[in-house]
From TrEMBL:
NCBIfam families: aden_form_hyp. Residues 465-484 are annotated as: Disordered. This is Adenylate synthase. InterPro entries: ANL_N_sf, CapK_Type1_Caps_Biosynth, CHP02304_F390_synth-rel. PANTHER family: CAPSULAR POLYSACCHARIDE BIOSYNTHESIS PROTEIN. Gene3D superfamilies: N-terminal domain of ligase-like.
């Protein structure tokens, strides 16, 4: 495969004068199209739209990335890639020939200094993945792509009330408080004269954020589900006194019980944004359904069950023209929404939820001695919630899974950590997991109850962890980040 020398680049500060006229125009055009355009009546119409965009993308973007120069541009014939492939071929998969080493150096320096404005060249923002799969990755976004992202996210997320405030010149700007581990020029790109953007660093104590929120009184709060839950608890205790019009969950799986708690204290439904390092993937519609953003992303399901209810997505981002994301396999487990079409009228793929990652799919021994029984994250979460009145939070850690050559799981020890629990809580968890095992014709796991350990500041909440992956599992693969 043909390769060229990598361009030597140095980090620079992002231009302080704001976005260029062309980027501003791109943001507005994208906002209008994403809010009021893309009204596909059928899946066939959407597919024809994707085909046109793919042909243009293959013609204009792929020849500028060394990795793809000599490959076919027929979409279905291109290789499916994963995180190790991207790490090995990072410079060849972006159109600026930026090396992974240099991108990581710039991004890690920004993380250490908590200054996220430096860019590569004059316009290339670098960000880090969360590294939850064991190795950190990096992503590259140009100023034009930032404008596309900002226009799309504002159009898809803002409620009618927030949009009216945004478009009313004499009204106060829309105030957004955004909680994440790291800021980015990408996230700051939503800021303007009509949008006030406040980054809330997750490495800072939550009490400091509560004081800041009481002062700023945001209209929209965007945060990981675990942070939203802590803020909702603070609101219920009277320490937090805000009335957001919108609450948006990002970066973590949103539990239904937590969503109900948040709605109860704020009176605003919780919407979700599903975004990975590899791009913006899905956003909640006005009816509360999570739809894949298929006007910008081609989604190929790799089904995990015969009923075709759960899948790993293989994605191609048609708007990323700097770091190309072409047939990239995520190991997130997505569950398809079943039943009647969504009342919003969108024909884009509707999800019942983002259940988690492949390493959150646990396996229990079968009572018949045959192949292991797969337990999906959503099933395990619902079971733990049945015992939830006995404790405040939980974690499930399957530490070992030994297999014979026939792929039969022989033994597996599971550590359960419960917050504010007693012996009755342990008995309730044991009973519910045993009931689930009996239903699935599986042997219940051997449980070890261990003390609760508080997560590190800024770390993603992962209630289910399979620390040693079971060999031979279909569909398992490395993963990118799940952030906003």
């Amino acid at each position: 495969m043909r390769q060229t020398h990598n361009t030597v680049v140095s980090p620079q500060k992002a231009p302080s004068a704001g976005r260029s006229w062309s980027d501003s125009a791109m943001l507005v055009i994208t906002f209008v199209r994403s809010r009021w355009g893309y009204r596909f009546r059928t899946r066939q119409q959407l597919k024809r739209f994707q085909d046109r965009r793919w042909r243009r993308f293959a013609r204009t973007s792929m020849p500028r990335a060394n990795y793809y120069v000599e490959l076919t541009h027929h979409h279905g014939s291109l290789p499916i890639i994963s995180k190790p492939d991207v790490r090995r071929n990072f410079a060849g998969m972006n159109t600026r020939s930026v090396t992974l080493e240099h991108a990581l150096e710039v991004a890690r320096t920004a993380e250490r200094n908590r200054d996220f404005s430096p860019t590569i060249g004059n316009d290339l923002t670098v960000g880090l993945s969360s590294g939850t799969s064991g190795t950190q990755g990096a992503f590259l976004v140009s100023s034009r792509e930032q404008a596309l992202w900002a226009g799309t996210i504002l159009a898809r997320v803002l409620s009618s009330d927030s949009l009216r405030r945004l478009l009313t010149p004499w009204a106060e700007p829309v105030r957004i408080s955004f909680f994440l581990r790291a800021n980015s020029n990408l996230y700051e790109s939503v800021a303007s004269r009509r949008v006030s953007f406040e980054f809330c660093d997750l490495l800072e104590p939550i009490d400091a954020h509560i004081e800041a929120l009481n002062r700023s009184r945001p209209n929209i709060i965007v945060a990981p589900a675990s942070v939203l839950k802590r803020l909702a608890d603070a609101q219920g205790e009277g320490r937090l006194r805000v009335r957001p019009n919108q609450v948006v969950s990002v970066a973590e799986v949103l539990e239904p019980a937590d969503a109900e708690l948040m709605f109860g204290v704020w009176g605003a439904p919780v919407s979700q944004v599903y975004q990975a390092t590899e791009g913006l993937l899905a956003v909640t519609c006005s009816q509360g359904t999570l739809h894949m953003c298929e006007e910008r992303v081609i989604v190929e399901p790799e089904w995990l069950d015969p009923e075709r209810t759960r899948f790993h997505p293989v994605i191609t981002d048609l708007q990323r023209t700097t770091q190309l994301i072409v047939r990239y396999r995520l190991d997130d487990v997505l569950r398809v929404r079943e039943g009647e079409p969504c009342p919003c009228g969108s024909v884009a793929l509707a999800l019942a939820g983002v259940e988690g990652r492949a390493d959150e799919v646990v396996q229990w021994p079968s009572t018949s001695g045959g192949s292991a029984v797969t337990v999906f994250p959503d099933v395990l979460r619902r079971t733990m919630s049945l015992a939830g009145r006995h404790f405040d939070d939980w974690r499930y850690e399957q530490e070992t899974a030994e297999q014979t050559p026939s792929q039969e799981v022989q033994s597996a020890s599971t550590v359960i950590r419960l917050l504010n629990a007693d012996r009755a809580a342990e008995d309730a968890v044991q009973a519910e997991l045993t009931n689930l095992a009996n239903t699935l014709l599986a042997q219940p796991p051997r449980l070890i109850f261990a003390p609760w350990v508080e997560p590190q500041p800024g770390a993603k909440l992962r209630r289910i962890t399979r620390l040693q992956p079971v060999s031979g599992e279909a569909g398992a693969s490395p993963v990118g980040e799940h952030t906003a």
